């Protein structure tokens, strides 16, 4: 049972009470986990389980991953689509939409599990020096990231000091009916959790968390990456610049060479550029399967011509790593433009690859954007040219400033972060419109979403409104 839905929890408690009266049974899975955890190893095992939740379809497996591109303008729906995401891709979602509910429930479940780790951590002695700091730091960072991700869909503003409604902050697993905190209050908590996590995870502890070939845990560099992204959304540009710089300068990671870049999108080939990835093993799904599901050869969404036109098709290593026009038998796709970013090491037979949540390239783009909006055009341009030089064979640096520079950085984000879950939020951050291009048409029923639409903020799910009386008057505008 999770902390957000009060009524099911009450039912569970009544069942347990009845059981105790009849059999004198001592329940082993109370919300505080006091009987479920026997030692520090149990706590660490639970932390491992928290990480597994990120790969679910309601988290980076779809909703917070490729679906955020499906909702925007970089891909268009084909007639092969089963229409499973039509309510979100056509922006017709309502409070009782299952996808919307999942996007709320699963991150709060992650928060609940992180809180369970934090509260039980102090009950046991650590078995090695630094174990508690390492576990606590990861749990705090996970809690901060999940709160931030919820804000991306459900908050009414991204501004750092906004007093508009954000989401409820959950710092324990008590049965409660919380109201929505302001955006500013949520940011305050996120910043606080990340600051403590960075302190705990800084230093030699990093060695025990990730290796050069497996970066699927949160270490100090991941915390910096989370902070950089959070600060960019918040328009806290000094923090965004500082945090991105920490990753670029101090993580030991860098932009992959053009020879190594395709390996980022192959299972067990992390390359030098990945800051944090969500692990997918064979049989655990294909992160990009809702775009192109290679096992069944179903192409549900194709790259938009307007996106393809941004690439230097011949010289840009990203084009061939992300998109193919040469898939042949047994796919029968020869000549079609197909997204191949998530096919993995086994390619067409059983596509499987880790989902890359943070990469060094994003840090260059975050720093470039933050610098451009801080009147640091020369430094912003240097970041843009550095990224392009790493990706495009024979690239010649350009000279840009002002709005043309900002536009170039935005377009570079489109090219670099294609179907990694950013495009919808980037348009929302910029206050722009979704304008789907020439390929938009059936089966899609909508091709444009103006910036003035209330649909840019998702509704609080009906299940939450039913269970939590305190939040019923705080539904987002347009959904009452």
Please tell me about this protein's structure.
The protein is mainly alpha-helical. It contains 16 helices and ten strands. The protein has helices at residues 6-23, 40-52, 67-70, 86-89, 98-121, 131-154, 183-201, 220-233, 237-250, 305-308, 317-322, 360-372, 377-391, 402-416, 423-430, 462-467, and strands at 75-77, 274-278, 292-293, 298-299, 301-303, 323-324, 338-339, 355-359, 434-435, 448-449. Strands 1-5 form a two-stranded antiparallel sheet. A two-stranded antiparallel sheet has the order 2-8. A hairpin with a 4-residue loop joins strand 3 (292-293) and strand 4 (298-299). The protein starts with 5 loop residues before the first helix and ends in a 13-residue tail after the last helix. The model is unreliable at 1-31 (pLDDT under 50).
What does this entry show, briefly?
The chain has helices at 6-23, 40-52, 67-70, 86-89, 98-121, 131-154, 183-201, 220-233, 237-250, 305-308, 317-322, 360-372, 377-391, 402-416, 423-430, 462-467; strands at 75-77, 274-278, 292-293, 298-299, 301-303, 323-324, 338-339, 355-359, 434-435, 448-449. The protein is mainly α and 480 residues long. A hairpin with a 4-residue loop joins strand 3 and strand 4.
Task: Give the neighbour order of strands across the main sheet.
Answer: 1-5
**Silhouette:** globular
The proportion of residues forming helix, as a percent range, comes to: 40-55%
Backbone structural class: mainly alpha
Low-confidence stretches: 1-31
Q: What is the radius of gyration computed over CA atoms, rounded to a whole number of angstroms?
A: 22 Å
**Strand-and-helix sequence, N→C?**
HHHEHHHHHHEEEEHHEEEHHHHEEH
CA distance, first residue to last residue? 28 Å
Oligomerization state = single chain
User: What is the tally of beta strands?
Assistant: 10
Please give the count of helices.
Answer: 16
């Amino acid at each position: 049972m999770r902390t957000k839905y009060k009524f099911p929890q009450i039912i569970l408690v009544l069942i347990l009470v009845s059981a105790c009266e009849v059999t004198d049974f001592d329940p082993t899975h109370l919300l505080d986990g006091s009987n479920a955890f026997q030692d520090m190893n149990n706590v660490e095992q639970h932390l491992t389980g928290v990480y597994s939740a990120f790969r679910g379809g309601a988290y980076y497996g779809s909703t917070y991953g490729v679906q955020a591109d499906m909702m925007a303008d970089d891909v268009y729906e084909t007639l092969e689509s089963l229409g499973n995401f039509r309510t979100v891709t056509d922006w017709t979602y309502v409070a009782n939409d299952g996808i919307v509910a999942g996007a709320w429930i699963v991150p709060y479940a992650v928060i609940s599990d992180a809180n369970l780790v934090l509260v039980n951590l102090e009950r046991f002695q650590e078995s090695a020096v630094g174990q508690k700091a390492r576990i606590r730091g990861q749990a705090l960072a996970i809690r901060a990231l999940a709160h931030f991700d919820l804000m991306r869909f459900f908050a009414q503003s991204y501004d750092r000091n906004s007093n508009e409604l954000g989401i409820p902050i959950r710092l324990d697993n008590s049965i409660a009916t919380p109201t929505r905190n302001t955006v500013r209050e949520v940011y305050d908590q996120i910043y606080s959790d990340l600051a403590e996590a960075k302190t705990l995870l800084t230093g030699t502890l990093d060695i025990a968390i990730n290796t050069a070939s497996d970066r699927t845990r949160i270490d100090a560099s991941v915390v910096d990456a989370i902070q950089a992204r959070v600060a960019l959304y918040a328009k806290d540009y000094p923090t965004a610049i500082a945090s991105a710089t920490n990753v670029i300068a101090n993580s030991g990671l860098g932009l992959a060479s053009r020879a190594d870049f395709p390996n980022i999108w192959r299972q067990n080939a992390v390359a030098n550029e990945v800051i944090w990835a969500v692990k997918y093993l064979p049989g655990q799904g294909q992160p990009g399967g809702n775009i192109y599901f290679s096992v069944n050869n179903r192409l549900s969404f194709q790259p938009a011509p307007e996106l393809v036109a941004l690439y230097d098709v011949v010289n840009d290593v990203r084009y061939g790593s992300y998109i193919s026009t040469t898939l042949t038998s047994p796919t029968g796709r020869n000549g079609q433009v197909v997204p191949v970013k998530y096919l993995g090491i086994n390619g067409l037979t059983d596509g499987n690859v880790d989902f890359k949540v943070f990469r060094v390239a994003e840090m260059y783009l975050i720093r470039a954007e933050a610098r451009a909006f801080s009147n640091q055009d020369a430094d912003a341009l240097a970041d843009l040219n550095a990224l392009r030089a790493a990706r495009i064979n024979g690239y010649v640096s350009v000279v840009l400033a002002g709005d043309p520079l900002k536009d170039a950085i935005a377009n570079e984000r489109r090219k670099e972060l294609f179907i990694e879950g950013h495009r919808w939020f980037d348009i929302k951050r910029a206050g722009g419109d979704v304008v789907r291009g020439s390929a938009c048409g059936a089966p899609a029923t909508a091709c444009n979403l103006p910036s003035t639409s209330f649909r840019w903020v998702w509704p609080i799910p009906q299940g939450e409104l039913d269970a939590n009386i305190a939040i019923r008057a705080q539904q987002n505008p347009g959904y009452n």
